[in-house]
Design a protein that fits this description.
The complex is a heterodimer. By secondary structure, chain A is mainly alpha-helical. Chain A has eleven helices and no strands. The longest helix of chain A is centred in the middle third of the chain and has 34 residues. Chain A is globular, with a radius of gyration of 18 Å. Chain A starts with a helix and ends with a helix. In chain B, the strands form three sheets. Chain B has a six-stranded mixed sheet with strand order 6-7-8-3-9-10, with helices on both faces. In chain B, strands 2-1-4-5 form a four-stranded antiparallel sheet, covered by helices on one side. A four-stranded antiparallel sheet of chain B has the order 12-13-11-14. Chain B has eleven helices and 14 strands. In chain B, α2 packs across α3 and α3 packs across α4. Classes of the chains: A mainly alpha, B alpha/beta. Chains A and B meet through α1 and α5 of A and α2 of B.
């Protein structure tokens, strides 16, 4: 456990020192600020969380997680990492934990920033209940999008870089936009975050269990494949 | 003497092609084992197997007498450089080393980092970002990473690559000093003369097969010696004089005479007297020993080995 915490601390430090993390945050804040001209808080916060259920979650989170894995290939530091006396499972777990932690932190900073900008812009009709509702939904759609990063980290490992997983993330976004309004949407993992948000006025978890199960299976398959690849593949 | 590294029948097959073929070698405590081979001979494959980065198709690896398996604490006793060492470019030398110290669980990481920076002579560059280091200093940083936990076994792939002459001497002295302290060093290099100055034993691998293992002492005995004779008059005339006295001599490309006869090598003064008596003045008389490079190439070319 102590080793795992040490590796998480190291992975955290690598992320904190990377321009990708701060660039992503800057982009998030910019996008949140741009939407501050909405007519009321319900529309404004709804739009902010919708962006996290779609582009900022599907692509933004994928950029951060694939960077955590792909940079080791780009910087050619992977072979040093593989030969260290730390199990590869722990390296994978630490990378996932550090990047997921930062994805959540960025989402929360963006939400707080949106509240601040909203007050500065004088958006009318604020209520604590409304803010809490959207904060909970932000956490739920973020969690779903983080699970959807399972295939992303696998692709980063398999392709030895971050280009393929980021391309994959953009492709999933396109699929989500095209298939979202159709009946098929609730069975497509990348549509489930936005459908979750869309139905959240009636229930905290408005979708059928099968939708959440599909997300869980997608995430588990991606993480298991990543672990297996790191554990079993020959690293030439 | 305690066996620190042993491979038994190590074989690796990639896509039907045999990269390593039944390689069995042993490195004892405190030895510097030089591993020689052409590009693609299988040097890096062995190093990667020793480090657990790839698995052999068959055969076994023993480190410090224990069979190498997943997990365990054997890795804590091994330091390594695999090919060109890379570091996190945005981190300074000190920060990079701190990261590795933390992952390795070194308690007094600050002390360990300072000590290893001094050991590899990187003090002036401790606060320089890795991306701004010269190739030579990047290599030293790689060496520092390999040494930070005071390992008992060092596995180094081309550690003097990209170093300037002063850097090469510094690394050589450092490795010799570590060896004298009992550290076992397994080193591959294509700088053969450097290896002949450093290694206490040499293994030659060609097309995946270990052709020969010799100690530096054995190499001294095995390598060919010849006498080079520089004459002012025509080399041809001098050659005829030597032939009359029973010495086989040939003319080299730069107009000197080369005598392989063992009697001439042992008693060059006799050759000198012979030519002086014939009125042929000498300007050079030198016993030349075959270099490791030449010995290596002769060994490899005489063993085409199987694919």
């Amino acid at each position: 456990m102590k080793t795992l915490l040490s590796v998480i601390a190291v992975e955290n430090k690598k992320l904190v020192r990377s321009y990708v993390l701060w660039g992503t945050l800057a982009l998030y804040l910019l996008v949140c600020a741009i939407r501050a001209g909405e007519a009321d808080w319900n529309t404004y916060l709804g739009n902010v969380v919708f962006m996290f259920s779609s582009v900022l979650g599907l692509v933004g989170f994928a950029v951060l997680t694939s960077w955590a894995f792909g940079r080791e290939y780009a910087d050619r530091t992977l072979k040093d990492l593989l030969a260290l006396p730390v199990s590869r499972g722990k390296v994978v777990a630490a990378k996932v934990a550090a990047s997921f932690g930062w994805c959540l932190i960025l989402a929360e900073i963006s939400f707080l920033f949106s509240l601040f900008i909203g007050f500065v812009a004088g958006i009318p009709d604020f209520s604590k209940t409304l803010a809490l509702h959207y904060y909970i939904q932000l956490l739920i759609v973020s969690a779903i999008n983080l699970l959807l990063c399972g295939p992303v980290v696998f692709l980063a490992s398999l392709s030895r870089g971050y280009l393929v997983p980021i391309t994959y993330a953009f492709a999933t976004l396109m699929v989500a936009l095209i298939a979202g309004p159709t009946e098929l949407g609730r069975y497509l993992p990348w549509d489930i975050p936005s459908l979750q948000l869309a139905g959240s006025s009636s229930a905290v978890f408005p979708l059928a269990s099968i939708s959440y199960l599909i997300v869980a299976i997608t995430g588990a398959a991606g993480f298991a494949a990543t672990w297996a690849w790191w554990r079993w593949a020959d690293h030439k | 003497m305690k066996e620190m590294i042993r491979t038994a029948g190590l074989t690796k097959v990639y896509d039907g092609k045999t990269i390593l073929n039944e390689v069995s070698l042993t490195v004892n405590k405190g030895e510097i084992y030089g591993f020689l081979g052409l590009n693609g001979a299988g040097k890096t494959t062995i190093i990667r197997i020793l480090l657990g980065m790839i698995r052999p198709t068959s055969g076994e690896v023993y480190l410090m007498g224990k069979k190498l398996t997943k997990g365990g604490d054997l890795w804590n006793h091994v330091g390594y450089i695999v090919e060109v060492p890379y570091a996190y470019p945005e981190f300074t030398v000190r920060e990079n080393l701190k990261l590795y110290a933390k992952i390795r669980g070194i308690k007094e990481d600050r002390k360990a980092v300072d000590s290893v920076i001094e050991k590899v002579n990187l003090t002036d560059y401790a606060e320089t970002k890795a991306k701004d280091l010269s190739l030579g200093n990047a290599q030293k940083l790689g060496l520092a990473k390999a040494l930070i936990h005071n390992p008992e076994i060092l596995i180094l792939d081309e550690p003097t690559n990209a170093l300037d002459p002063a850097g090469i001497v510094a690394v050589r002295e450092l490795l010799k000093s570590l060896s004298s302290e009992g550290v076992t060093i397994f080193i591959s290099s294509h700088i053969l003369e450097e290896m002949s100055k450093l290694a206490s034993r040499i293994g030659i691998i060609h097309r995946g097969t270990l052709l020969q293992e010799i100690s530096t002492l054995e190499f001294e005995n095995l390598r060919r010696k010849k006498l080079h004779v520089g004459v002012r008059s025509t080399a041809k005339l001098a050659g005829e004089q030597l032939a009359k006295a029973g010495y086989e001599a040939s003319v080299t490309g730069d107009g000197m005479l080369e005598v392989l006869d063992e009697r001439a090598v042992r008693h060059p003064e006799r050759v000198s007297r012979l030519l002086a008596d014939a009125g042929i003045p000498l300007y050079l008389l030198s016993v030349v020993e075959e270099e490791l490079e030449s010995y290596f190439l002769n060994t490899v070319s005489g063993n085409p080995s199987k694919e």
